[in-house]
Amino acid sequence: MFDYTYLPAPNLIPQLIEMMIKIIFIFTLNIGFFAPILGYVERKQSALMQDRIGANRADIFGYTLGGLFHIMSDAIKLIVKEDFIPRGADKVLHTFAPFAAVVPTLLAFAVIPFGGKYNLWGHETNLVIADLDVGILFVFAAGSLATYGSVIAGWSSNNNWSLLGAVRVASQMLSYEVAMGLTLVGVFMVYHTLSLTEIAAGQEEFFHWGIFLQPVGFFLFIACALAENKRVPFDTPEAESELVAGYFTEYSGLKFAMFWMAEFLEIVTIAAILVGVFFGAWHIPFLSDDSLLNFLAGIFGLNFGSLFTMLVHTGVFWLKVAMFIGFLMLIRWSLPRFRYDQVMKLGWKIILPLSLANIVVTGIILLMVN
Amino acid sequence: MLNQYIPVLFMIVAAAGTATGMIILTTLLGPKKEFSDKMEPFECGVSPVSDPASRFSLSFYVIAMLFIVFDIEAVFLFPWAVIYTKLGVFGLVEMMVFVLVLVVGLAYVWKKGALEWE
Questions:
Q1: Contacts of A110 in chain B (CB under 8 A)
Q2: Nearest-CA distance from B68 to chain A in Å?
Q3: B44: domain range?
C-alpha cells in the first residue's frame, strides 16, 4: 500500500520510481502490445474460422511473417488517413468522444494486480499501480465513464445510424451495469473485501479460486462483461449489418482507431478481472507462493529468488490473461448476434434475478458454513 | 487515505496525454479535401432524408430510470457484502427485506410491461 504520509523523505523517490515503472509497463503492454496484436489476432482468427487465408499481403522485401506486417501497415494507414467530420456535426464533441472512450479503459488498469508483494533488495514492491480499498468499484466507475464516449460519439455525428447506435449503447450499458455490479457481490461476501489485491491474495489455495466458490457468479459476470464490451453476441449498438458501424460510423483515421483500441483494451481488462477474481490471479495451482519463493531463494539467493518469483508470477498472470483473451475472442466468431429485445430481456429478466438469487444463496451457505 | 489515489492521478495524466496526442496527430497529419457531397453524413449513398435529432422510443427513458433505482441498490449491497460474515443472521434477514422490496419493484415494472420491446 502506498502510505506516503508516514514515510521518511528518502523512501519517496524509490516509491515514485517504482510507480513510474509500473505505469510505463502497463501502458507499453496495453498500447504497444495488446492493442495492435489483438487487431491482428482478430483478423487471423476470423480467417481461420471462415476457412480463408486472411491477412497475409503486407510485406517487407517479400517477407510477410504470416501477415504480422499488417500491424505496421494498419498503424501507418490509420495515422495518415484523413480526419473526417461530417457537415452538421458538433465538431468539439465529435473530437472529444474518442478521448472519452479511451481514457477510462486505460484508467481501469490502475487497480488490477498483476503480481503479489515482493521484497527486492530491501525495497517492498506491490505489483499493482494503485492499491485502492475500493478496487473493483474503481473498475466499475471507469466502465460507466466509457459509456459517455460511445453516447457522445453517436449524438454528435449528425447521422441517423450513429444516433440509433448511441441510444442502444446507452440503454444496453446501463442495463448490464446494474447486473454486473450484482454478479460480483457474492465474491465480495466470500472474500470480505472490495480490493482486487486482497481478493487475489485470498486465492492462493487452488480450491479457494473464485470459480469454485462463485461458479454462478462467474458465468453471469462473463455475460455482463461481454455486453458492456459491446461485442458479439451483444453488439447491437455497432451491428454492421443493421447500423453500418453504429455510433462510430462517422469516424476515420486515428479517431476510429481509438474506439477500436478502447474495445480491445476492454477485452484485456475483462480478461484480467476474470483471472484476478475467478482464476487465482498470479497463483499457480497446488504451488503456494512461499514454497516457490523458498525453492528459488534456495537456488539463487534471497534477492534474486524473490526477483524470479516475481517474474514467474507476473508471467503466470499474463499467460492466464492471454488464455482468457483467446476465449473471449473465440466467442466473437462462434455466436450469432442477439436481437435488441433479447439483449434487454436477458439483462433484466434473467441475469438480474439470477444474480440476486446468487447473493441470497451465497449468504445462506456462508451462514451455514460459519 | 487519499494518498492511495496519487498513482491514479498519474494514470489519468498519462492516459489523457496519450489520447490527446492521438487526436492532435490525426488532426495534423492526413489530407484535408473538402467538397460538398463528401461532407454529407453517411446514409447508404443517398443524401440524408431525415434529421437525426428526432424523437425516440419512450422505453429508453424508462430503462434509464430503472437503472438509477437498481444501481443504487447495488451500491448499498457492496459495503454489506464486505462485512457480511460479521453481521450473521441479522445481516442476512435485514438485507433480504431490502432486496425483497426491490424485487417487488422489479416484478411491478415487469408486469407493467416496461421491459417489453416491440
A1: 7-8, 11
A2: 9
A3: 2-112
CB contact under 8 A, A87 and B88: no
Please tell me the total count of domains within chain A. 1
Q: Which of A119, A194, A159, A157 is nearest to B74 (CA)?
A: A194
Q: Residue B4 is nearest to which of A131, A170, A370, comparing CB atoms?
A: A131
Confirm whether B97 is domain-assigned.
yes
Question: Is A276 contained in some domain?
Answer: yes
At residue A120, the 3 state secondary structure works out as strand
Range of the domain at A319: 84-369
| Cell (9 digits) for B46 | 443517398
Nearest-neighbour CA in chain A from B18: distance (Å): 8
Of B1, B11, B60, the CB nearest to A129: B11
For residue range A271-316, what is the model confidence (pLDDT) as tens digits?
999 998 898 888 888 877 778 777 877 787 777 888 888 888 889 8
Please tell me if residue B25 touches chain A, with a CB cutoff of 8 Å.
yes
What SS3 string covers A200-222?
Answer: HHCCCCHHHCHHHHCHHHHHHHH
Length of chain A, in residues: 370
Residue B3 identity: N
Query: What are the helix and strand counts (H, E) for chain A?
Result: 16, 2
B79 in a structural domain = yes
Report the predicted TM-score, pTM, of the whole model to 2 decimal places.
0.87
How many structural domains is chain B composed of? Answer: 1
B118 within some domain: no
Per DSSP, the residues of A238-279 read G-HHHHTTGGGTT--HHHHHHHHHHHHHHHHHHHHHHHHHHS
Domain membership flag for residue A240 = yes
How do residues A183-219 score in pLDDT, each as one tens digit?
888 888 888 888 888 888 888 888 888 888 888 989 9
Q: Identify the DSSP state of A351.
A: I
CATH number, domain containing residue B93: 1.20.58.1610
Would you say residue A9 lies in a domain? no
Residue A69 belongs to a domain = no
CA distance A230 to A173: 8
B66 in reach of chain A (CB within 8 A): yes
